[in-house]
Give the backbone structure.
Amino acid sequence: MKKLILLASCATLLFACGGGSKSTAPGTDSLQMGPSSDTSSATAEMYGEAITADSALGLAELPAIMGDKKEVACKLTGEIEAVCQKKGCWMEIKNPNGEALRVTFKDYGFFMPKDASGRTAIMQGVAKVEETSIADLKEYAKDAGSDKAAIEAIKEPKKELVFEASGVILK
């Protein structure tokens, strides 16, 4: 009986650890949970939907593309400034205006490596103007490792430009 329970536990553990990662061929819409060997460069990794680097715009061009719109589908590139240190479930891209662009991932379907800061990301998805709640701002600060005083100092929601990526190439 003990052997049966041990065997079932091991099988469950193996399934849980190996079940979320799936590789996709270029051009498919399936989500990936980790690096792909099918990228344009040997040092690049692909996450989420398979995308190409073609026609990616610099983050400085985003305000002109957005204009008065609240939402725009586009492909952007920029340097990663910070990554969620809890799971890799969001990242911030350096913005020439000094304020980082927060990037989340479509349907919480993939994550970035926690050590991706300083690398270049090419992201395809939707740029949106949103109001981020106080609770979310505090959670982001906590995930980033901010101290308790900085987290408690957050008292108002923030209207900001955010990006939801459906696919990311990490260089």
In short: The CA atoms of residues 77 and 122 lie 4 Å apart. The radius of gyration is 18 Å. Helices lie at 2-18, 62-66, 134-143, 148-152.
